[in-house]
Amino acid sequence: MAELSAELVLVNGRLSPIQERNLVRRLGVNVLDRTTLILDIFAQRARSHEGKLQVELAQLKHLSTRLVRGWTHLERQRGGIGMRGPGETQLETDRRLLANRIRALTARLDKVEQRRAEGRRARERGETPLIALVGYTNAGKSTLFNRLTESAVMARDQLFATLDPTVRRIESLAGSPVLLSDTVGFIRDLPHELVAAFRATLEETLGASLVVHVIDAADPDRARHQAVVEEVLDDIGAADLPLLRVYNKADLTDHAPGLERDEGGEIRAVWVSAATGEGMDALKRALSERVGEGRIHRWIDLGPDHARLRSRLFALGVVQQERIDEEGICHLEVELDRRDARLLTRLGGADGKLVEEVLLN
Ligand SMILES: Nc1nc2c(ncn2[C@@H]2O[C@H](COP(=O)(O)OP(=O)(O)OP(=O)(O)O)[C@@H](O)[C@H]2O)c(=O)[nH]1
Ligand SMILES: [Mg+2]
């Protein structure tokens, strides 16, 4: 946390134009607000093509809001960013060029995102369950990811060490293969431009069968950071996915590594140290116990009045086999996420009721 907070003391909050100009003079830089700073860090960390595009786009969008709002007083001091058209002030030229670049980047990002969505759908069709690691920045997600996959994703004591989602296949975690994803860390008061920029990345999480919330157990701000992450999950619509809380860095606390269960025997949390490897067996047990939980695998019988439901199930690609008996009743073997089943209840009427009774019970 140290890296950013020293600078934040200086720049947090909105500055008046006069304060801003004085700071520009004193420091000789234009990096003056929290968003610009975070974006700067993001720009240094982005590795993938998509990550770089997302950061550049967010930077330009942010710059353009500042051009409109607060930069007129700096107009004469700056060189500007391109050739001035006839009768244009420098500010107008800057705005026009920015708008062009933003459009071009948006178009390129749309394409990249489309390709990634296709990849995600292909994965879903493949039906290998996805476990998504999420958590506040610096909680230890990448270290844990490396432990679980025995791979070497960059783990560092710095904010946003990971910007691009990484997905690996683990052959034998829950007895059967699973996919594990490591994603960008969340942060308190993430400026809304950034939430928008990384929405696509965060939405990877929505495809997960199990969300693993990695929490830095030794963080003095633990409760607040934990709440922030769960609010963001709520925001992107991931609140009703199965969630497992993992308290990492147990080595820095008095708490023993291992499983915590509630009175009903349900796993409440797991304490681990990704750094020392303590608690990893307990974590693996918890993951395999919980990952199947969000899946429904059963037979459903559909009469002729359930044609709509039948076609929706086929469209979702969740039908494993179909047998039609002499009375014309379709017996379908389906395997799907509880979440998808819940969405199907929106069909309402007899279809919704059947989903409720047969799939969700
Ligand atoms: N003592 C201790 N340190 C740990 C543990 N797990 C991770 N760390 C350290 O915590 C720091 C952050 O770890 P990362 O794995 O990069 O954290 P992250 O959540 O991926 O961070 P971002 O990608 O920035 O969101 C690194 O210095 C790790 O070495 C642990 O169990 N114990
Ligand atoms: Mg990381």
Q: Briefly, what is this?
A:
This protein has 361 residues and is an alpha/beta fold.
What does this structure look like?
The protein is of the alpha/beta class and 361 residues long. The chain is 46% helix and 17% strand. The protein folds into 3 domains: 2-108, no CATH class; 127-293, Rossmann fold, CATH 3.40.50; 303-359, no CATH class. The radius of gyration is 25 Å and the shape is flat. The structure holds guanosine-5'-triphosphate (GTP) and magnesium ion (MG). Magnesium ion is lined by residues 141-142, 161-162. One of its GO terms (cellular component) is cytoplasm. Its cofactor is Mg(2+). It is found in: Cytoplasm. It comes from Wenzhouxiangella marina.
Descriptors for this entry?
single chain, 361 residues, alpha/beta, Rossmann fold, 3 domains, 7-stranded mixed beta sheet, 3-stranded antiparallel beta sheet, 12 helices, 10 strands, 46% helix, 17% strand, flat, disordered N terminus, binds guanosine-5'-triphosphate, binds magnesium ion, GTP-bd_M
Question: What is the 3D form?
Answer: flat
CATH hierarchy class name of the largest domain: Alpha Beta
**Terminal Cα separation, in Å?**
45 Å
Strand content: 15-25%
Major sheet: 7 strands, mixed
Number of domains: 3
Describe the secondary structure blueprint for this structure.
Blueprint: H1 2-11, H2 17-27, H3 34-45, H4 49-69, H5 90-126, E1 130-135, H6 141-149, E2 166-170, E3 178-182, H7 192-203, E4 210-216, H8 222-235, E5 243-248, E6 258-261, E7 267-271, H9 280-291, E8 295-302, H10 307-316, E9 319-324, E10 330-337, H11 338-344, H12 349-359
Parallel strand pairs: 1-3, 1-4, 4-5, 5-7
Antiparallel strand pairs: 2-3, 6-7, 8-10, 9-10
Helix pairs in contact: 3-4, 4-5, 4-7, 11-12
Pfam family, one: HflX_C
Family: Belongs to the TRAFAC class OBG-HflX-like GTPase superfamily. HflX GTPase family.
Binding site for GTP: 135-142, 160-164, 182-185, 248-251
